[in-house]
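Worked Example 4.2. Consider the chain below.
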Amino acid sequence: MAKPLKRIVVKLGTNLLTRGGEELNRERMADFVRQIAALREQGKQVVLVTSGAVAAGRNAGVPSPSGKGIPVRQILAAIGQPLLMRTYAEFFAPFGIAVAQALFTRTELERDGYLNARNTLLGLLETGVLPICNENDVVAVAELQQIGDNDTLSALVANLVDADLLAILTDIKGLYTADPRSDASATHVPVVENITREVEAMAGGAGSASSIGGMATKIKAARMATAAGTDVVICQGTIPDVILSLAAGEEVGTRFASKVSRTKSLRDAWMASDLARGHRIIVDAGAANALLKNGRSLLPAGIIGVEGTFSRGDTVEIRAVGGDAFACGLVNYPSEDLRKIMGKKSSEITSLLPESFGDEAVHRNNMVFL
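Applying the procedure from the previous section yields the following structure tokens:
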């Protein structure tokens, strides 16, 4: 029996949104919006990772730059991104759904940037706003800044928000034993138990000229997401009500099941992280009780000790005074600042520190209990 889905990341590719042409297809976009709205009516949370900014920019009614390469894509993305968002906002409005734009580069998904992005996306979901994510092509010039494609971004976002399912919608049925467009003997693969070299070989190389990511990048995304505890489905986005079918657990496309629980994967990451350096927060009995029994966030008022030197976004161990570690989490404040605000009310943070990152020392969304 499929596990219940609370949070879903949906990735829409350029070819799907343009129906293989050079401009966005409004009818198809509206249908995807209708399905996502229906999921929200079922009480599910959805994050949308969308391509299409370059296609929107190419058909914006302004002079298009000549040539090819990154500079041209950046210009087209800069023109098209607000048009893409405006279209989504227009389609979601009749359903009473507000949308928010989230643009990322790789450097923004590391360390405290990761924490900022995670807190923002989870905050949007908690308030009922639908996040719409894309790579920030305009500023991602250097290789180290580039995420590379929206397939990879969708896996990173699934990790950020602890998604139960990542649905990568494309223009073919899913993974085949070979490229079905050139090999008539290719057969569809409904389930992948393990992503082996043989599976990667089936994926082949890049996709069409109008998109960056082919099946190879989708397999890479599936590997990243399943390793972090998220199930992945790669499937044809043109199937009627495909998003609703996936959310209902129907067998569509190619499914990659996660082998680990999200808690276990986070715990393994914690055990291999900075905790060996002695990054530790000691809390009083009241705070420990609030965390363990009531699922609360850790506030500065409950902290009675800070051990080690760490930065905002580092992983820290949380333990009760005189006891063992019972949790770990991503800390909102560096150790130097925590020592200044520990034992204080959250309302005092702004008077004690030059900059506030919220009321919590460790937010409950960024905490794992051991």
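The mean pLDDT is 86. The chain has 13 helices and 13 strands. Compare this with Example 4.1 before moving on.
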